[in-house]
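Give me the fold.
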Amino acid sequence: MPPSPATRRTDPPRQTPSWLRSAQSDETGETMITNSYYTQDVHGPYELHDIGTLDLEEGGTIRGCTLAYACFGTLNAARDNAILVPTWYSGTNKIIEQVYIGPGRALDPDRYFIIVVNQIGGGLSTSPHNTPAPAGMGNFPRVRIGDDVRAQHRLITGKFGLTSLALVVGGSMGAQQTYEWAVRYPAMVRRAAPIAGTARNTPHDFLFTETLIEAITSDPGFNKGFYGASAEVREGLLRHARLWAVMGWSTEFFQQGRHKALGFSSLDDFIINFMFGYFSVMDPNDLLCMAWKWQRGDVSRLTGGDLRAALGRITARTFVMPMTSDMFFPPADCQAEWRLIPGAEFRPIETIDGHLALFGADPDALGQLDRHLSALLAMEA
């Protein structure tokens, strides 16, 4: 297994001039963050694979780009049962495993070889907090959805030698990556299931995500991305959690007391002990890295801004599956894109849990997802 980003040697290439090598190794005071949340104890088991140097769409470079991934099931002799699941904002392979994968489920490891890949910036793969100075923390380069997908393609083809995927499926930012896969590598993706996400982000969603970013960066403890620990950005992470509570769930969720049904005595109890408890352990720079690329998710970058042309490239059997009460990616936004995908089906998930129905707290929503995914996997592709 390749070493983690936190322990990998960062010596410059031998051909680098000595004066530059000295400059790169000088102490800058900008160090990596040790965060016990991003560990095998919390999210394992997962593997690490160094895909090499990744040149980014925005012009930056990640050297020794390492992807964290988890596999479930066995690749069959025909090598045609592989499923790829990219992660969402703040999510890792562990929540995907716990909520969506298991015997008898649509994502059944007894039938399929399932690869869950953690996105760049998500905390387990190469991310701002685990990249050595001077390129880490607030200096981490801008990453786009297309960069994630190109990195995943290297993993899928190089590590596993795969030339086709039975299904690419993901929620939220995972849906953005699913669309990117289906448009960028149409011959490789046989089926696609974007859940609670769009192929091109909307102005409304861009603006809301900007408030998530500002909630963190406006905390004086953020210090332009060079803090000593996530706890120094406590107030920013708390504001960030409150904003997620506003938009992540739905008005009906709170009106019907769903937070109490989940075991929380009051709204304050829910905000502090669930929403803030969830986000407070995460690294602020990692969240910002993901938020920036979420804002700019857009498959039409591959076709000069023409969304119809981009979605027209998709040859995969595709189910578009919004959450009916989602305020980030409303069904109408998803439906408008569905109409541009050849042969696609529109399969909304009825739930009052909003966007965060992805967390799996609504068993009926999970049942609907399983039925739709099972139907998609049963189709010839």
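Strands lie at 47-50, 54-55, 61-62, 66-72, 82-86, 113-117, 167-171, 191-195, 317-320, 345-346.
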